[in-house]
Amino acid sequence: MKKVQILGLAIAIVSLACIAPKQHHYISFKTASEFQAFLNRKVAPYPLLSAHRGGPMAGYPENAIETFENATTYQPVVIEFDVALSKDSALVIMHDDKLDRTSTGTGLVSSYTYNELQKLALKDDDGKVTSFKIPTLEEVLRWGKNKVLFTIDIKRGVPYEKIIAAVRKTKSETNSIIITYNANQAAKVHELAPDLMISATVKSAEDLERLNKMGVPNDKIIAFVGVSEPSQNLYQYLNDKGISTILGTMGNLDRSAKANRNKQVYRDLVANGADILSTDDVVLAGEQLDAYRKEKQLKLKNLKLQ
């Protein structure tokens, strides 16, 4: 009888463990100055992952709040997401110009009002329809407070002024970075919001010099160095100026890491100088970053498990 009871208790414990909620890895900064000090490398570097389009995986579509939350169960993350405009000028989260690939809708996002978009459901990368809805920028920013960092990718035709207004309204200066693709865009964002951090493409010293000449200071720049590994000289050049770097691994580097798991590709990328890896594989990249942080005994006071 006792053996049966013990077996039953063991089964119950295992069952509870299986249904227990996952812990979330949250990252937060109390002030915009503290956030910027981290990005300006004024504290010990702590490599992070940027979940490209929020870290979609089976059952979790790209650019959904539920997907963003799921990503935090694996890592403290930077969430990269995309902002588009609805027909009635609502700021909604969607990568493609058209709805077909990622939702139950068809045609252009811009041909639907916000209320019409809310009637649609999002699909994961395998085409499976979920119960998740297209969120607004304000909803995402409010959700992310004291949870994640953001890099905000702005689709063509979306005014920077509207993005900045949403950041101000939600007091998201403590965790938001605005993505730009050329020096003109970076200069425009800095003119509109000189206190905000900007992701700017910097693949050479000349790129940074151009940004500086257009009025964008180093302490407001996060350097996106491309989707192939740059020279360590570029990393050193940027680090010496207090500039953190983002390396995009989505694409070839992600595929290489998956095909060569034993080579610890992601671990080597941060060891070589990348501060943030923007990846489509949060799970594998996270495992390798965890091992690297443990090996180097890296700590960050702004992290918490919840």
Structure description:
This protein is α/β, with parallel strands linked by helices and 306 residues long. The chain has a single domain (24-305), classed as TIM Barrel (Alpha-Beta Barrel), CATH 3.20.20. The chain has 12 helices and 11 strands. The strands form 2 sheets. It has an 8-stranded parallel β-barrel with strand order 2-3-5-6-7-8-9-10, surrounded by 6 helices. Helix 11 crosses helix 12 (282-296). The longest helix has 18 residues, at 2-19. It starts with a helix and ends with a strand. The relative contact order is 0.15. The model is unreliable at 6-18 (pLDDT under 50).
Sheet with the most strands, sense and barrel status: 8 strands, parallel, barrel
Residues in helices, as a percent range: 25-40%
CATH top-level class: Alpha Beta
CATH topology: TIM Barrel
Sequence stretches where pLDDT stays below 50 over 5 or more residues = 6-18
Query: Distance N terminus to C terminus?
Result: 39 Å
- Rounded to an integer in angstroms, the radius of gyration calculated over CA atoms is 20 Å
Oligomer: single chain
CATH superfamily: Phosphatidylinositol (PI) phosphodiesterase
- Using DSSP, what is the number of strands? 11
Query: Based on the structure given, which CATH architecture is correct?
Result: Alpha-Beta Barrel
The tally of domains stands at 1
Which structural class should the secondary elements be placed in? alpha/beta
Strand order of the largest sheet: 2-3-5-6-7-8-9-10
Task: Calculate the mean pLDDT score and round it.
Answer: 94
Q: So what's the overall shape?
A: globular
Per DSSP, the total helix count is 12
SSE ordering = HEHEHEEHHEHEHEHEHEHHEHE
Instruction: Give the percentage of residues in beta strands.
Output: 15-25%
